[in-house]
């Protein structure tokens, strides 16, 4: 209980200043002024979006929290990657317009969902339990839709669009691998600690709390702009 | 604690954090008044820029044509107040060196904020002055042939200043002009 309260407070501190992670104003001005392929710039923006995006980081943390062997990590992360690459690329090319606040709120739901699953929340609700691999894939689709929406909020030049899009997607993967390296290394250390099971419960409670904050913030944003 | 209770606790904690801290700081909504007490709503005010500023200056259009002799350079400035905006569009019949800069009374002589330098035949855009002062262009002809520049600017402009051949020609618009 003590750990739960502490971890919730820590997550709240972490979540609040970095909640809004749209492409920054300066980056947006640069991207909108571009005509033609700029693979390195888009690669960088994709990686930055992932590394500085607390929602993506929290979801990845939830996914790898209890995974102990590399094979499982690769399977889950590949499913997530496949999901978000699909919707990112087709979303931008087909010009899908989705309410960005709604997508961000769904990403918040994905954070809560995975953390709830981590504390065994679905064990008793047998009907609600999905195969986690499908859930991770489905949330990958949602995260990709979010990325596609953010990219389309900028006025992108048709010239070099596919190159820039693929570069952005590759950047997202690079950012994801960077985040995962840090998360997995720290988790490996933590999983060895005797207090890990108790602290893990508190940590996942904190992740759920941060997920709820994200949901609330984005739903509020949606109601304000509707 | 059962997982379901933990989920509820997390939701309740998140709700409190949202109402007390996040919404006041991010959106300016402050249902409990805690945001004001903690000074968090100020964050939302400064980040909620909409690009809207009111102005007391009249709206005017400035249309000018400049002929630059070979290797001649001029400066053409607009007198604007803090927060006043204008849209501009200039074109030249051959490539000209240009620089847009802003100079305020709070700066030393010759000091200016450079907002865009280049060489080209046209530029159009929007500008909002950050401070009262002279805001405008340097044009330089680096070729051996004369260049004609047509410039148009519309917005809350109080006057113009032309620097040419060591002279300063200032035109301050009258009220209602």
Topology:
The complex is a heterodimer of chains A (226) and B (177).
Chain A: H1 2-15, H2 25-33, H3 39-51, H4 54-64, H5 70-94, H6 100-118, H7 132-153, H8 161-192, H9 196-225
Helix pairs in contact in A: 1-9, 3-8, 4-6, 4-8, 4-9, 5-7, 5-8, 6-7, 6-9
Chain B: H1 3-27, H2 34-38, H3 41-47, E1 60-68, E2 73-80, E3 85-103, E4 113-128, E5 133-140, E6 147-155, E7 159-164, E8 167-172
Antiparallel strand pairs in B: 1-6, 2-5, 2-7, 3-4, 3-5, 3-6, 7-8
Helix pairs in contact in B: 1-3
* Poorly predicted tracts of residues of chain A: 13-21
* Sheet with the most strands, sense and barrel status of chain A: none
Estimate the strand proportion of chain B. over 45%
Q: What percent strand of chain A?
A: under 5%
Report helical residue fraction of chain B.
10-25%
Low-confidence parts of chain B lasting 5 or more residues at pLDDT below 50?
none
Number of helices of chain A: 9
Counting copies of identical and different chains, the oligomeric state is heterodimer
Largest interface comes to: A-B, 30 and 20 residues
Mean pLDDT across all amino acids of chain A: 82
| CA-based gyration radius of chain A | 18 Å
Structural class of chain A: mainly alpha
How many beta strands in the DSSP annotation of chain B? 8
Provide structural commentary.
The complex is a heterodimer of chains A (226) and B (177). By secondary structure, chain A is mainly alpha-helical. Chain A has helices at residues 2-15, 25-33, 39-51, 54-64, 70-94, 100-118, 132-153, 161-192, 196-225. In chain A, helix 4 runs parallel beside helix 6, helix 5 (70-94) packs parallel to helix 7 (132-153) and helix 5 packs antiparallel against helix 8 (161-192). The longest helix of chain A is centred in the C-terminal third of the chain and has 32 residues, at 161-192. The radius of gyration of chain A is 18 Å and the shape is globular. Chain B is α+β, with helices and mostly antiparallel strands. In chain B, strands 1, 2, 3, 4, 5, 6, 7 and 8 form an eight-stranded antiparallel beta sheet that branches. In chain B, a hairpin with a 2-residue loop joins strand 7 and strand 8. In chain B, helix 1 crosses helix 3. The longest helix of chain B has 25 residues, at 3-27. Chain B is elongated, with a radius of gyration of 25 Å. The relative contact order of chain B is 0.21. The model of chain B has no long low-confidence stretch (mean pLDDT 88). At the A-B interface, helix 1 and helix 9 of A face helix 1 of B.
């Amino acid at each position: 209980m003590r750990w739960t309260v502490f971890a919730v407070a820590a997550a709240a501190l972490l979540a609040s200043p970095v909640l809004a992670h749209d492409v920054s104003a300066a980056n947006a001005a640069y991207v909108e002024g571009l005509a033609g392929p700029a693979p390195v710039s888009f690669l960088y923006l994709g990686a930055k979006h992932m590394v500085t995006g607390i929602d993506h980081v929290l979801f990845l943390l939830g996914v790898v929290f209890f995974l102990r062997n590399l094979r499982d990590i690769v399977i889950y992360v590949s499913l997530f990657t496949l999901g978000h690459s699909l919707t990112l690329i087709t979303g931008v090319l087909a010009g899908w317009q989705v309410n960005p606040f709604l997508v961000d709120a769904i990403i918040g739901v994905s954070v809560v969902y995975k953390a709830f699953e981590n504390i065994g929340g679905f064990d008793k609700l047998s009907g609600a339990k999905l195969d986690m691999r499908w859930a991770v894939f489905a949330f990958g689709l949602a995260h990709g839709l979010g990325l596609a929406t953010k990219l389309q909020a900028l006025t992108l030049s048709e010239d070099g669009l596919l190159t820039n899009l693929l570069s952005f997607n590759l950047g997202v993967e690079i950012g994801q691998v960077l985040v995962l390296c840090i998360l997995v290394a720290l988790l490996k250390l933590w999983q060895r600690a005797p207090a890990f099971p108790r602290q893990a419960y508190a940590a996942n409670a904190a992740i759920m709390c941060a997920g709820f904050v994200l949901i609330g913030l984005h739903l509020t944003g949606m109601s304000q702009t509707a | 604690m059962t997982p379901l209770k933990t989920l509820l606790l997390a939701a309740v904690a998140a709700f409190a954090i949202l109402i007390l801290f996040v919404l006041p700081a991010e959106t300016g909504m402050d249902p409990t008044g805690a945001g004001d007490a903690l000074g968090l709503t100020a964050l939302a005010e400064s980040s909620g820029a909409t690009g809207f500023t009111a102005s007391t200056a009249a709206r005017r259009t400035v249309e000018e044509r400049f002929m630059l002799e070979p290797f001649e350079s001029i400066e053409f400035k607009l007198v604007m107040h803090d927060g006043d905006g204008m849209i501009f569009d200039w074109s030249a019949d051959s490539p000209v060196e240009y620089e847009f800069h802003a100079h305020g009374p709070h700066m030393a002589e010759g000091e200016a904020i450079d907002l865009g330098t280049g060489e080209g035949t046209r530029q159009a855009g929007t500008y909002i002055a950050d401070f009262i002062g002279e805001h405008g262009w340097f044009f330089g002809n680096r070729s051996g042939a004369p260049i004609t520049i047509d410039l148009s600017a519309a917005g809350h402009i109080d006057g113009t200043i032309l620097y040419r051949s060591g002279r300063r020609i200032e035109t301050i618009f009258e009220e209602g002009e």
